[in-house]
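Q: Please design a sequence for this.
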């Protein structure tokens, strides 16, 4: 089973503390997730983020397919990074690292997601045809929503790379 990676960088003209406050609140994930994904939090978003937190969602990663997605917040360094890992859901593996760092004029958000697709050869075929395209759309949508909420940082080129 092949391991894939998504790496995204986005700069925002806000203070690191403001970015952390927004990104570490699980309820805000709905604001940066495309409507067609049918994203809905079932439980676990009623407290500030902490290690060991279990969050349950319903999500529609593809038209006609809804699934429960359960993640655990496994690592938190307040203001700097957190890690969520899928415990149950559409991927064979999902390990998502969220980093924040101060840059001139704002904050740099960096996401690194290591993931595996289930279903063996069928999953490997689906990766470039469906999954990779869907992840790109989701992260481009997120980029747009964050720019609408917080503005754009001049002179910074956002990056999105999927291997």
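A: Design:
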């Amino acid at each position: 089973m092949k391991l894939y990676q998504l790496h995204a960088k986005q700069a925002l003209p806000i203070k690191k503390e403001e970015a952390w406050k927004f990104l570490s609140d699980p309820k805000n994930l709905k604001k940066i997730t495309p409507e067609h994904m049918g994203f809905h939090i079932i439980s676990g978003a009623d407290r500030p983020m902490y290690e060991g937190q279990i969050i349950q969602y319903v999500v529609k990663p593809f038209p006609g397919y809804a699934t429960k997605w359960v993640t655990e917040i496994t690592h938190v360094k307040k203001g700097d990074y957190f890690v969520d890992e899928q415990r149950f859901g559409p991927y064979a593996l999902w390990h998502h690292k969220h980093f924040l760092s101060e840059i001139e004029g704002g904050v740099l958000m960096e996401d690194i997601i290591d993931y595996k697709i289930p279903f063996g050869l069928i999953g490997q075929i689906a990766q470039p045809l469906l999954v990779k395209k869907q992840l790109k759309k989701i992260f481009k949508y997120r980029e747009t929503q964050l720019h609408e909420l917080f503005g754009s940082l001049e002179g910074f080129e956002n990056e999105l790379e999927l291997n």
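Q: Thanks. Anything notable?
A: The beta strands are 3-12, 40-43, 54-62, 65-77, 81-88, 93-103, 106-116, 159-162. The longest strand covers residues 65-77.
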